[in-house]
Request: fold
Amino acid sequence: MSSADTASSPTAVIADDERLLREQLRARLAEVWPELEIVGEAKNGTEAVELVEEHHPDLVFLDIRMPGMNGIEAARAIAQLPVDEDGARPEGGKLWRGAEVVFITAYDQYAIEAFEQGVVDYVLKPAERDRLQVTVERVRKRLLRRGSDEAPDASGMQGLLQKLAERMNPGAVPRLKWIQATVGTSIQMIPVEDVLFFISDEKYTRVQTASLEALIRKPIKELVGELDADQFWQIHRSTLVNARAIAGVTRDLRGRQLVAVRGHPEKLEVSRSYAGLFKGM
Reply:
């Protein structure tokens, strides 16, 4: 079974480079959420991503500051993992919609203000029972909404992660201004603001402007961290669209949201995880 029954036996992964803090969080969770099953513990972000990919848990607790891949980077990587879409139900009958993220953090007013926006939740170090209970109740409600087939809203996640990353390492990741891409047999420098959308397959990412189509080897998961999240919206794990180029959103006969782009006839599908970008459509 790829994901636990969220109504009776939800699962989680804990990632913190301090063993005692992992043990303390596990013990506190056993008190406030006894039915929660901890399926793995990680010492860093890389291990956390591997465990999430292996176990498909319902939620993941990520320490923001870990050696190597930190919690912000791990959350970005986890958000890029393929989820189960409708019509492709895996063996065992459960669809994995991705993992809810709860950050573990020392007191940081900026981070807490960001978390209070409701995109993700947080636990302060050391984990206190009362505050953890609040987090648990919020996560439970989100998981119940998933159980009722309501799409999780991942629309604000990447923007929040980008802002947190910039706060932690100001200037560490400069925003892309140009895309160096292959067009036919030549290399062209394409201004980022001219790009209508990016679509990835297993090997290449297609760069589409109003006048040309080009290919680059950089995957979407890397572009997400290098582009301005306010300008380029992720609408699918393989698609980024320039928000300024969006002409409108419609639904097809299957109820899927489709984005129309100015200057190009192609319609871009919005996956369930990002449907919250266009609430009310």
